[in-house]
Amino acid sequence: MLINRRKFSLTAGAAMLAGFNVVRAQSDSKIILGQSAAFTGPAAQLGIQFYQGAKVYFDQVNAQGGVGRRQIEIRNLDDGYEPDRCAENTRKLIGDDVFALFGYIGTPTSLAALPLATKEKVPFIAPFTGAMGLRDPFNKYAFHVRASYNDETGLIVRQLTGLGLKKIAVFYQNDAYGKAGLDGVNLALSSLGLKTVAQATVERNSVDVAAAVKTLVAAAPDAVVQISAYKSCAAFIREARKAGYGGTFYNVSFVGTQALADELGKDGAGVVVTQVVPSPYNAARPIAREFADAVKVAGKGTQVNFSSMEGYVAARLFVEGLKRAGGKVLSRESLIAGLEGIGSQSLGGFSISFSPTDHVASSFVELSMLTGDGRVRT
């Protein structure tokens, strides 16, 4: 299915976020979630879009009286996709006694925050990352909605090798996120007796890709798997093509599909991105229709895309756990029990499962492709 690209206004997004940067104490009439994410800088669209999608669902619930007569509110702080800032924000949020931490964006930031949440026994819900370092070993306080980067890179490697393309290079961000994705590629290749033909890095929040382009283009790979954010991935694609590279580019979901499409425009033709939630553009699934309808009702400029869809799904799953927490006295422990009690079910055609021994809701992964006119083919 082809979807028209919609330009996203950071100005509009910032306006929506205005007033949500001051952390306030909880009250009996509110359930306050804390979120540290990138709302400025090269990864800003990821934080803004996820937040918007989640808020669409929470606003729906609040309009119907909330959960147990409590309104749900997200208090967010901007970390610019930097771990030190995220850790500082997390301490502030926990110090203000937010009920749970929700929707953190990125691997290095989440790795900085999760130990703080665990120490204070604060649930850490739906981080926008697939890193195994946040999932293994099992953590009672961490709940993941999305599939892992191992799931995503495994699908990419199977797709490429199934097409007879075995010369695979990796362009990755020089931090915990990039290395998690690289590990996934290496694991998938090694299971087939293969190795990468070349590897090159880019620093987080940087678009200085010249050295990486030189290294990888010289190796003449069939495909380049990219494990970075949309700004640097777009810069690499443009420069690699200018340097004469004619192979294909594969990205994991964290890149931000719509953000990458907006960055690349016509240069996006043929770029592949794995997805960890169902397509918000395919009306065959009830969850996609529900989300699209909710965005229309919200009428606040929220964009329908994969990142906002993930925020919406995460919010749905949180509320499901909240409802199961039950009782007049709501506690973090009862929320954990409520989430673990969800079991296996379908959220509008999207299969999820939580239990006391498994806090990863989904292993769903599929491929999508950008077109030259800024659309997404799913």
Q: If you had to describe this structure to a student in words, what would you say it looks like?
A:
- This protein is an alpha/beta fold.
- It has two domains: 10-147 and 282-354, Response regulator (Rossmann fold, 3-Layer(aba) Sandwich), CATH 3.40.50.2300; 149-275, 3-Layer(aba) Sandwich (Rossmann fold), CATH 3.40.50.
- 41% of the residues lie in helices and 17% in strands.
- It is built from twelve helices and 14 strands.
- It has helices at residues 10-17, 44-63, 83-95, 107-119, 149-162, 176-190, 210-218, 230-242, 257-264, 286-298, 306-325, 332-340, and strands at 30-37, 71-78, 100-102, 124-125, 142-143, 168-173, 198-202, 223-227, 248-251, 272-275, 343-347, 350-354, 366-370, 376-377.
- The chain has a seven-stranded mixed sheet, with helices on both faces.
- β1, α2 (44-63) and β2 form a beta-alpha-beta unit.
- The radius of gyration is 20 Å and the shape is globular.
- 53% of the residues are buried.
- Mean pLDDT is 92; it is low at 1-26.
H-E order: HEHEHEHEEHEHEHEHEHEHHHEEEE
Structural class: alpha/beta
Q: Biggest β-sheet, characterized? A: 7 strands, mixed
Radius of gyration equals 20 Å
- The CATH architecture designation of the largest domain is 3-Layer(aba) Sandwich
CATH superfamily of the largest domain: Response regulator
Number of helices: 12
Give the low-confidence spans: 1-26
Q: State the end-to-end CA separation.
A: 6 Å
Overall tally of domains: 2
Average pLDDT confidence is 92
Helix content range of the residues, please? 40-55%
The proportion of residues in beta strands is 15-25%
Number of strands: 14
Give the C-level CATH assignment of the largest domain. Alpha Beta
C-alpha geometry: globular
Query: What strand line-up does the widest sheet have?
Result: 7-6-8-9-10-13-14
CATH topology of the largest domain: Rossmann fold
